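Friendly challenge for the regulars: who can give me the structure tokens for this chain first? No prize, just bragging rights.
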Amino acid sequence: MSRTPSRHARNGIAFLLAMTLFGLLAGCEFFGVASVIGQNIEREKKIEVLAEYDGLRDSTVAVVVLTDMMVMYEHPGVVANICVNLSDRIARNVQGVQVLDPRFVLDWQHQTPGWQSMAYGLICEELGVERVIWLDLFEFRLHPPGNRWQWDGAASANIGIVEIDGFDPDSFGEAFDVSSTFPDVPELGRESATASQIQTGLLATFVQKAGWLFYDHIEDKYPDA
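First reply, four minutes later:
Bragging rights claimed.
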């Protein structure tokens, strides 16, 4: 003959069920929090990236920057800024490299009409170096095309390396495309920053990415996260 559980027994069973359910829910919440923490840790990871071109080691190097007249007119200091800061970054991070003083390079460009059409090997000889980093900046803007009410900086360049001792010193031994954007904020209004701030940030990110081609460095594992 079956017996009906007493009121105290029923209360005890209900309590056990409630505690079991609470434990399951708490466990789900714990694993959910742990998963979020794990994702955040993964997003913040850094990785070592090897140089894409390591032929600057123990070499004499000059950085030569060129761009079109529109960029020079709208941003007159950009060529000199990239030349100086990229030269400095390479000098500080590439083992055994000797970088030609960028002031000498800029003066040579100014004093040498038609240097843009000279044979690459001849430019190496004129500058007295074994390597020339030829940076052709074909895009540099601070706004989206046709919209000066927002900040959306972008810089893009073709970078070729001239090797005086290479197979053909009048062509690039290696070539790369580099592009950078700044700021990383969509639809940033013009009142939120100055042109100087946007240009400074864009130049910094662009020179960093260009420099990374030539030496081992640390990057974010997920740069767009």
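Residues 7-43 form the longest helix (37 residues). Residues 7-44 form one domain. Your move, everyone else.
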